[in-house]
């Protein structure tokens, strides 16, 4: 390799006072001091999370091209993904009826290849005949002529050999070879609206690696590296960015070269140490030992409206055991939509209240909070508890009054939205905090709520209907114990799900009408409240789906009017969306609950928690715009009663390939775990966990799905380390902790909790 210029290489740096100073290039050097990076570029890099030289080194190539042994054009086969180098023979911008196409012929020797870019006007003056270009894309054979073609290839114009002398020295490695040819070439995601090209990153990363002060700090203990055969950090950076010639392309593709494995392991290792320490701290805290007396059991028995399922019994057992213990409970309750989490939550609440404590139940939306409030009152009021609802849209006076009940302890069960974690809410004696639909809340917020206590830590129960694949739950939410409701209450019928195109709308409406006339109720769901106002999308509250395409969208308000006057004339139709005033929402929900509204036109506000057993039909328009988990959540609103239920997915436009897979999955299965797995696969962990909202850390090189095995290993090793691994020296331990503090804090922002 051409790296490892030892000794402190000085670079020019400007201090905050404006004077010039020479400093060695280190991992912690601010990126703006790196050669070729000024304030403007630094800003573009910051948008990618790159602030220090170290961040740049973690910005790994997203793909590699083998330009050491590139295929010749003659060797290409239709159907393969290929990277190929050739010479530009000619190009032209063709204007067809519909879209401009840029065409280019690239050749080597007698073989040639055609490249086509749709909407390629921007390429018009990019290429000159005789240039050498590297291309990457899927090779196809024209079905008429058999000629090989690549559609929309990625490309790079390569410097001609005699230009090489002229290019910056940094573009060559000291061995004399080019960074962009004759080797395995790293391809980076561009940044700064493509101003920072892949080649820019290549050069800049190479410069940084070449000039980095050695030795580079190594945060992983030596014994650990030796036992697991991990590369040291500096070498891992070098090889991940500029793989040596003998590196397997297959391993590069799978990100499991030794270099990648080392960096992935490192990231998981620190993540898991952080979680393990948090867990330890939690275990050390003093909680409340609730007593499970005969009186408590009696109270639970009195309010139970039905016989709990075996799953509910088992899970309540787990919760009750935690609540009796002197350490604070931290439990995650997973259960598919309709599995009966609310019942379990109210049972747990009863334990706390009968012990003289208050309970807070926090929900992500007003609708859901209201829903919980109504069912809690229905079930628990016979026990004589005061149950209050606190949401942001209440009148100030009313809020004040409720807050007074909370602080004086005269309200035993407090149900609410984010309003609950507002600073002015003070509990008299909080014993249990229940957070519903945890994906909508930041981890941080959970902790803020928990800190409301005075002396002992309240117990926490987090409920989610988006099941997280088990291994991931354990490793990521490893600071929580998990319980799973793996059984639905009896008497549920399966839901028939169909997918139709918009042209068949009339048939769909006729079907809905028939069901309603037979005494049932229906939901009609739209992705937006009003058309053409992009900001009114309620898709997942910014979490999923809804990459705003500009196709005309049918919107709830307008369709409500249309349906009410048209096909549903004579039926009682209602409208529900997030912009309605809270009391109006409440009224609509209550009327739907009572069956006074037969057809409810709505947005995704009904996604979580709404519970009307008599509703057996759901029509989702523009279904291709919804995320998979979201569709599953929506569908969970039906199939709650004894009548056969139907979900009709109406596509209003062409679904993408990914959209197709989502809809196909919806038709195929009703299993929440299966759907969650697929959703995770389709969207990637970042979006799946809604990263910031869920509090799951944003990983730089690791991918919790692809690298599950490494994650498991890292977890084991982290536990071993925290327990006090004898093979690790005191100095190394200090280095690990120091690294955790500086990096974990900065990257994941979780460690200060507790
Ligand atoms: P989740 O919150 O898990 O989606 P809910 O708690 O809203 O599910 O329960 C779904 C429906 O099932 C509700 O109508 C509830 O009353 C009903 N239910 C819950 N537990 C049982 C049970 N053990 N037997 C019969 N019905 C139940
Ligand atoms: Mg629920």
Describe the structure.
This protein is of the alpha/beta class and 754 residues long. 35% of the residues lie in helices and 19% in strands. It is built from 23 helices and 23 strands. A 7-stranded parallel β-sheet has the order 13-14-12-15-16-11-17, sandwiched between helices. A 6-stranded parallel β-sheet has the order 18-23-22-19-21-20, sandwiched between helices. Helix 9 packs parallel to helix 10 (341-354) and helix 19 runs antiparallel to helix 20. The two termini are 45 Å apart. Mean pLDDT is 83; it is low at 4-10, 162-176, 440-453, 533-551, 689-696 and 749-754. Magnesium ion is lined by residues 341-342, 436, 609.
Summarize the structure.
This protein has 23 helices and 23 strands. A hairpin with a 4-residue loop joins strand 4 (81-95) and strand 5. Mean pLDDT is 83; it is low at 4-10, 162-176, 440-453, 533-551, 689-696 and 749-754.
């Amino acid at each position: 390799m051409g790296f490892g210029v030892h000794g402190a290489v000085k670079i020019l740096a400007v201090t905050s006072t404006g004077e010039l100073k020479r400093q060695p290039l280190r991992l912690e050097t601010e990126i703006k001091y790196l050669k070729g990076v000024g304030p403007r570029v630094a800003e573009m890099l910051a948008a990618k999370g790159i602030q220090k030289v170290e961040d740049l080194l973690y910005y790994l190539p997203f793909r590699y091209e083998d330009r050491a042994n590139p295929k010749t054009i003659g060797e290409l086969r239709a159907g393969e993904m290929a990277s190929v180098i050739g010479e530009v023979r000619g190009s032209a911008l063709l204007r067809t009826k519909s879209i401009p196409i840029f065409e280019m012929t690239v050749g080597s020797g007698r073989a040639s290849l055609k490249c086509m870019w749709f909407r390629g006007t921007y390429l018009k003056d990019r290429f000159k005949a005789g240039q050498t270009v590297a291309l990457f894309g899927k090779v196809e054979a024209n079905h008429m002529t058999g000629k090989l073609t690549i559609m929309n290839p990625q490309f790079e114009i390569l410097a001609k050999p005699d230009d090489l002398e002229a290019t910056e020295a940094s573009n060559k490695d000291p061995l004399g070879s080019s960074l962009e040819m004759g080797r395995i070439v790293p391809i980076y995601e561009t940044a700064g609206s493509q101003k920072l090209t892949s080649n820019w990153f290549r050069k800049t990363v190479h410069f940084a690696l070449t000039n980095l002060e050695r030795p580079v700090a190594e945060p992983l203990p030596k014994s650990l590296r030796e036992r697991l055969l991990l590369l040291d950090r500096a070498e891992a950076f070098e090889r991940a960015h500029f793989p040596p010639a003998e590196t397997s392309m297959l391993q590069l593709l799978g990100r499991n070269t030794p270099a990648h494995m080392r960096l992935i392991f490192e990231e998981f290792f620190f993540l898991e140490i952080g979680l393990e320490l948090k867990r330890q701290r939690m275990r050390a805290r003093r909680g409340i030992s609730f007593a499970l007396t005969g009186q408590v059991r009696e109270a639970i028995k009195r309010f139970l409206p039905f016989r709990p399922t075996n799953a509910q019994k088992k899970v309540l057992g787990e919760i009750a055991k935690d609540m009796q213990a002197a350490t604070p409970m931290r439990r995650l309750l997973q259960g598919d939509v309709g599995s009966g989490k609310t019942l379990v939550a109210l049972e747990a609440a009863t334990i706390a209240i009968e012990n003289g404590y208050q309970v807070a139940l926090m929900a992500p939306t007003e609708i859901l909070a209201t829903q919980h409030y109504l069912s809690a009152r229905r079930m628990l009021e016979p026990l004589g508890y005061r149950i209050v609802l606190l949401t942001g849209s209440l009148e100030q006076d009313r809020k004040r009054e409720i807050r007074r009940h909370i602080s004086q302890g005269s309200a035993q069960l407090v149900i609410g939205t984010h309003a609950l974690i507002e600073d002015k809410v003070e509990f008299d004696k909080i014993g249990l905090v229940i957070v519903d639909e945890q994906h909508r809340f930041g981890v941080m917020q959970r902790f803020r709520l928990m800190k409301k206590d005075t002396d002992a830590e309240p117990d926490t129960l987090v409920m989610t209907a988006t099941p997280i694949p088990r291994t991931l739950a354990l490793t990521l939410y490893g600071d929580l114990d998990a319980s799973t409701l793996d059984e639905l209450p009896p008497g549920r019928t399966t839901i028939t799900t169909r997918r139709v195109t918009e042209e068949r709308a009339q048939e769909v409406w006729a079907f809905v009408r028939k069901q309603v006339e037979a005494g049932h109720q229906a939901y009609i769901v739209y992705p937006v409240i009003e058309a053409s106002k992009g900001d009114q999308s309620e898709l997942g509250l910014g979490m999923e789906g809804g990459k705003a395409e500009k196709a005309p969208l049918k919107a709830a308000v307008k369709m409500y009017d249309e349906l009410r006057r048209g096909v549903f004339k004579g039926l009682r139709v209602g409208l529900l969306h997030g912009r309605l005033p809270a009391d109006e929402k409440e009224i609509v929900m209550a009327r739907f609950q009572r069956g006074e509204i037969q057809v409810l036109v709505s947005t995704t506000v009904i996604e979580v928690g709404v519970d009307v057993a008599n509703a057996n039909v759901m029509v989702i328009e523009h279904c291709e715009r919804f995320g998979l988990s979201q569709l599953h959540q929506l569908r969970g609103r039906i199939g709650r009663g004894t009548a056969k239920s139907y979900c009709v997915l109406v596509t209003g436009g062409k679904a993408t390939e990914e959209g197709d897979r989502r809809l196909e999955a919806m038709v195929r299965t009703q299993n929440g775990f299966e759907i969650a797995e697929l959703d995770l696969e389709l969207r990637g962990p970042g979006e799946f966990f809604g990263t910031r909202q869920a509090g799951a850390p944003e990983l730089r090189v690791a991918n919790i799905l692809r690298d599950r095995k490494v994650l498991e290993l890292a977890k084991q090793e982290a536990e071993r380390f925290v327990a006090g691994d004898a093979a690790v020296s005191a100095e190394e331990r200090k280095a690990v902790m120091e690294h955790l503090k500086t990096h974990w804090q900065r990257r994941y922002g979780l460690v200060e909790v507790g």
